[in-house]
Amino acid sequence: MYESMKMSVEHVVETGKISEEYNTSDEVRQVFSQWSIDGFTRQNHPTVIQVLLDQNKDKDITGNCLPNLVYVSRQKSKTSPHHFKAGALNVLVRVSAAMTNAPVILTLDCDMYSNDPTTPLRALCYILDPEMQSNLGYVQFPQEYHGLNKSDIYACEHKRLFKVHPVGYDGLCGPNYVGTGCFFRRRALCGGPSTLILPEIDGLCPDSVVNKPLTAPSVLELAHHVAGCNYENQTKWGSKIGFRYGSLVEDYYTGYRMKCEGWRSIFCYPETAAFLGDVPLNLLDVLSQNKRWAIGLLEVAFSRYSTITFGVKSMGLFMGLGYSYYAFWAILTIPITTYCLLPQLALLNELSIFPKVSDPWFLLYMFLFLGAYGQDLLEFVVDGGTIQRWWSDQRMWIMRGLSCYAFGLTEFVVKSIGIPTEGFNVTSKIINDEESKRYEQGVFEFGVPSPLFVTLTMAAIINLLSFIIGLVHFIVDGGSNKEGLVMQLVLTGLIVMNCLPVYQAIALRSDKGKMHTKTTVTATLLASAVYVVASLFLK
Questions:
Q1: Among 19, 70, 29, which Cα is nearest to 48's?
Q2: Do the record's keywords include Transmembrane (predicted)?
């Protein structure tokens, strides 16, 4: 059945039309006819709503009722903003309110699936608890993945973001919404616990009762109406009702605004993963996704609802600082880039910028350095991580700081002064056989030329040259300055070890995932320019 369906879909995509052989009934013909109208494209089409399963009449082979299943494709127009994922979620909230108005909503990304059928029961245990029902907005499950390779080379697990930190937030007002694996109370999307904000139509109110069949003409008419691309004009959707607009990270922003309104959340972390999803299999997709997050988080940080001002005032100091930690994520590019370039450039010019080994201040530097890494390793391992994955996480932290955080911060600043930038890009989860094989082997994917790789490769080249030349100077003619160069050599050597995949992609690989020549040449020229400029200043 699957192979037959796959062939049918591929044939339709290839030909661009749906032939009569697939129109097996009047119902199917009616649905498919909507895709056949002139001008129907992904960016411009009417609303399509189709009831695929109706629990009042559809049963499985054992005679049990099947749940309602409704396909929704909201109206799109090139002249109307659609607000990406947040806009799609708000349409689904309204359409579901018109058709069933169930009090609980589960949001799940399209690349994730249920791994435990008892998950809804776990969520309902909290949602129906009378002691917390008054201000509980949602129950968040950790975002977990299948298919991660042994060392998780791209650090896609995000253990701290999805597992470690939410446990701490649970002791305050609860974890943030991470975009998937979350059960919402419908009421929580309509204002604060004590300030109900009613939608503009009575049928969309959270306490409204739908007593008509899914296929009733009046129900379908309302559903089509609220899925229109201009429906939200002059309404509070996206500002005070539903999922919030104003940031590329609509999940973070929505959860944050709900906390500011007085809602709390619960982190449910069962032994068996509730949901499992796919991870990107190449470095460019990973960095592009993190760049989008960085821009979206900065949009919140510097908005009228800034976490450091509005957030602290609304949620308290600890929750406000907790949200600020992520909101200002991209600014980490400044210290990361500084530590990845300044000591190395100084080492090339035999200039010491750290205390000598015999200096008492050296012990403080080493204590802070080893203490920070030790604490980080302990948190990672205690939560079930491995040392190998922790090393990957540290490596990607440096790579993100040198690439996507830097580009994200730059793009946000450029966008803030009115210069247009590129739009929203969905992270690809399409599986390429060659990429998949290299990923399973733990080999990085650099095959596509990208500006994100240029700064990363430039830093890798500077660190390698700095380490080699610095080590030669240290051994041959270190002189009286020998002790002062130790910390710079250690730091440079650590970054060189983290950049080993870059060196392999430049010089040791011949597969399609190797570094593109254009990227290597550009990075080399940039590294040379940086060295010349730095030498003039340092001397």
A1: 70
A2: yes
Tell whether 437 is in a known binding site: no
Distance separating alpha carbons of residues 235 and 232, to the nearest angstrom: 5
Q: Where are the domains of the chain?
A: 53-279, 330-422+431-538
Which DSSP state fits 214? T
Could you tell me the sign of the dihedral formed by the alpha carbons of 244, 247, 251, 256, in that order?
negative
* Lateral strand order in the sheet of 104-107: 104-107, 182-185, 136-140, 264-267
Annotated binding-site residue? 109: yes
| Element at 283 (helix H, strand E) | helix 283-301
pLDDT at 351: 87
pTM score, two decimals? 0.91
Query: What three-state secondary structure class fits 292?
Result: helix
> Which one, of 76, 79, 112, lies nearest residue 91 by Cα?
76
* Domain 53-279 classification at class level: alpha beta
Residue-wise pLDDT for 425-471, tens only, equals: 555 555 577 888 899 999 999 988 899 999 999 999 999 999 999 89
- Compute the distance between CA of residue 252 and CA of residue 272 in angstroms, rounded to an integer: 25
Distance CA 40, CA 444 (A): 40
Backbone angles phi, psi at 221, to 5 degrees: -65, -45
Q: How confident is the model at residue 484 (pLDDT cuts 50, 70, 90)?
A: confident
